[in-house]
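Our preliminary data section would be incomplete without showing what the modeling component actually yields. Below, a chain of 329 amino acids is followed by its predicted structure, encoded as tokens that our downstream tools consume directly.
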Amino acid sequence: MTVATEILAEGKTKILRPGLSPNEVRVTFKDAATAFNGKKYAEIPGKGQLNAQISTLLFKLLESAGVPTCFVRAGETSSELVYRPLTMIPLEVVVRNYAYGSIIKRFDFEEGMPFQKPLVEFFHKTSDDPQITEALILELNLVPNQAVLEAIQLMALQINEVFLQFFGPRGIRCADFKLEFGIDPDGKLLLGDELSPDNFRLRDTQTGAVLDKDVFRLDLADLAETYRHLLGRMQGPATQAAPPTRLHTYQAEVFVQSRKSILNPESKAILEGLHVLGYQSVQTLNAGKRIVIQVQAESLLAAEKQVRQVAETVLSNPVIEDYELRLKP
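Predicted structure:
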């Protein structure tokens, strides 16, 4: 079978080409290393293959935990992956557990200081990637609606929990990482881009040794050798005992409404009553219910799964009703 060579898009570190079917995109990881918005550049043999392997491992880790991602499978070459096609959201989502990098310059934190809770920051994907507020994200229509923005933040924190549980027992501090998200042809929000050490800050918990692209940025060590060492630790067994499992209390809001195609007698009665009272300007109305519940779970992913089961089996009628879930970390 002839593989298409057409280039759909090309960035500093990846090339996107058509897949073998319309539902696939082939992503080739380059050997290029860049820093400081492209001002520093080098070709490092083997880097693309290492980034593809590390991304594959982490995508599979997230998929097994229940996080929806763009990953389909490994590609035809060792530096290629196959993704689901996405319409990418022009945001970089940075999750921070410790103070490193730009946040130190912006807020004068001490390097390596742990945050009380993980921080989620948004940056607009433009030439200089400025930090952006949630209000501006909505004003610029960078996401379809408020619900999608909330879903992105929740998924970012869920991903963070998975990474902390994975890296911690392997003696690796997951200080921060960058994510990108997209919408698939069915309208579903998925994690996209890559999960390589190019987009992480990882430190050895005992020695403080750098295990990410900072070794290239700061000329600390050989990047390819650092990535090979990191991959070996990630593929190997945990070297430290995992922390004891703890239950956390999460609060969720479930909003239940009749589907738009369903005639809701309650909604019709309220609307007619409003018209009788003189509120003729009210044209449509869809009555619903808001249920606030608290659940105990080991993680945000586990809490979301519990609440969705309750919403689908008890709180709503899947035949005639839709529900929206908002889970608060």
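The mean pLDDT is 94. The first strand starts at residue 9 and ends at 10. Preliminary results of this kind motivate Aim 1 of the renewal.
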